[in-house]
Design brief:
CATH class of the largest domain: Alpha Beta
Number of helices: 14
Bound molecules: pyridoxal-5'-phosphate
Distance between the termini: 60 Å
CATH superfamily of the largest domain: Type I PLP-dependent aspartate aminotransferase-like (Major domain)
Number of domains: 3
Strand content: 5-15%
Structural class: alpha/beta
Radius of gyration: 23 Å
CATH architecture of the largest domain: 3-Layer(aba) Sandwich
CATH topology of the largest domain: Aspartate Aminotransferase, domain 2
Largest sheet: 7 strands, mixed
Number of strands: 13
Length: about 450
């Protein structure tokens, strides 16, 4: 089936939040409510708060509820908004899983791909969920974790009666690799294990029939702002309509437990606007763009670049295939005033969207094709060795800590995770012991100082 045939058809969708804000602006002349800027200042006019008629995010029953229902119709899910990124949706998803386990008189235990974003770490620290990690395969970047249905089946079948409550995976990962969620979800369903997906990078996969919810995930978090025309911070928590209604019933409560009581209406309105854009052809624009990206990828491959990842709207080049590091390739882009999403020793990652325009795509391609090829520069693949755990992440997070040079921390226990953003994927997790392998990885990724337990 072609991508186009898989794409869901939507009826044209209204914009209740945008309409309310517009009407408010034209109807009232003075604001005696928060925020303090009173709508004065360029771009501040639409920044309102939960005034009469504006609904209330965490007890939505008016315009926000209507807008979230519109988003749910697009994604084929019970959809809830986050104005604080997927980070908030991920914390809510983990909390909902703990609540579900508690209702069944069980301890919450989550089997998780080790390439989890830092927000998952904060979620387990806050909820005290137990985690069992699945580590990357040899030769894989620590940003990836190729989880297959076979691997999950093997792990779950050795769990006996002690099944985890949920499996948590990150797909797509930062480099653009996706996993086969359909097959993994079939294994999870067979074993009565929930499937949670960090789909922060993949909201748009809905237009390719590859969204985690349609592939059987019970819940997923999408950063709308990463790939759709939405303001930074706009994200979704999606719950599968076929999942236990317990999750839908408790979703807003879970989000409100970690979220601010002052969600940004600029962000909520941009999520609302995205519904209308998508139902009016933005999905088609993304599909068209991805065909163009595919042509660009073919040209890069013909030139000699090795590419990784199967995400259609992202390009990740293996820098060593043309004799450079990712840092060096990034310099070439910067010389031409082009900004990449991410780079490290091995990779350079570019995130695109229909907002880039064909001239920008042409410039990007031209710069990458102007790079003077050298003999492959083997910077060496990293090896991820499973670290030893001294205590749980939660215990470690509550100890006093001290900052020290990573290279001098051999044998110390990590307190809080030290990661830059991007990619915000921790090399070592709170409670784990700093070993030589971790020191090597800290060095490789430029992490000079870390926080260790002070005892
Ligand atoms: C894989 C992954 N998960 C989760 C997040 C958190 O998303 P947000 O920035 O929307 O909170 C990010 C952010 O970069 C991410 O890359």
């Amino acid at each position: 089936m072609s991508n186009k045939e898989k794409k869901p058809a939507y009826k044209s969708i209204n914009t209740p939040i945008c309409d309310f804000v517009e009407q408010y602006r034209s109807s009232f002349s003075a604001r005696f409510h928060m925020p303090g800027h009173k709508g004065k200042g360029n771009g501040y006019e639409n920044d309102i708060t939960e005034i009469t008629g504006a609904d209330s995010l965490y007890s939505a029953s008016g315009i926000i509820a209507e807008s979230m229902k519109n988003a749910g119709d697009i994604f084929g899910a019970d959809t809830f908004y986050s104005a604080e990124g997927s980070s908030l949706s991920i914390r809510a998803m983990v909390y909902l899983t703990c609540l579900y386990a508690k209702n069944k008189n069980k301890k919450c235990r989550i089997l998780a791909g080790r390439n989890a974003h830092k927000s998952f770490l904060s979620a387990i620290i806050l909820t005290n969920a137990e985690v069992e990690w699945i580590y990357p395969q040899d030769g894989e970047s620590y940003l990836s974790c190729s989880v297959t249905a076979e691997r999950i089946k093997e792990i779950l079948s050795s769990s006996g009666k002690d099944m985890p409550t949920a499996l948590y995976i990150t797909s797509p990962d930062y480099l653009g690799n996706t996993v086969d969620i359909s097959s993994i979800s079939a294994v999870c369903k067979n074993c009565g294990v929930l499937l949670l997906v960090d789909n922060a990078h993949g909201a748009y996969l809905r237009f390719f029939g590859r969204h985690p919810i349609e592939q059987g995930a019970d819940m997923c978090a999408d950063s709308a702002h990463k790939t759709l025309p939405v303001l930074t911070g706009g994200a979704y928590l999606h719950i599968n309509r076929a999942a236990d209604k317990f999750f839908k019933k408790n979703a807003l409560g879970a989000l409100s437990l970690f979220g601010s009581t002052s969600p940004s209406y600029l962000i909520l309105a941009s999520l609302d606007r995205a519904n209308a854009l998508i139902s009016n052809g933005y999905d088609e624009k993304i599909i068209k763009l991805c065909k163009e990206i595919d042509r660009i990828k073919q040209k890069l491959i013909s030139y000699g670049y090795k590419l990784i990842g199967d995400e259609p709207m992202k390009i990740t080049v293996c820098a060593e295939s043309v004799g450079y590091t990712g840092y060096e390739l990034n310099e070439k882009l910067l010389d031409n005033r082009l900004i990449a999403e991410f780079f490290d020793f091995n990779y350079l990652t570019l995130m695109l969207s229909p907002e880039n325009g064909s001239d920008e795509l042409a410039r990007l391609l031209s710069v990458l094709l102007s790079v003077q090829k050298k003999a492959p520069n083997i910077v060496g693949e990293e090896r991820y060795i499973k670290p030893e755990k001294a205590m749980s992440a939660r215990e470690a997070a509550f100890y006093p800590s001290v900052k020290m040079r990573a290279k001098d921390a051999l044998g110390k226990v990590l307190a809080t995770v030290s990661v830059g953003c991007p990619p915000a994927v921790p090399i070592l997790v709170s409670g784990e012991i700093v070993d030589e392998n971790a020191i090597e990885l800290f060095k490789r990724y430029g992490i000079e100082y870390i926080d260790v337990i002070d005892k």
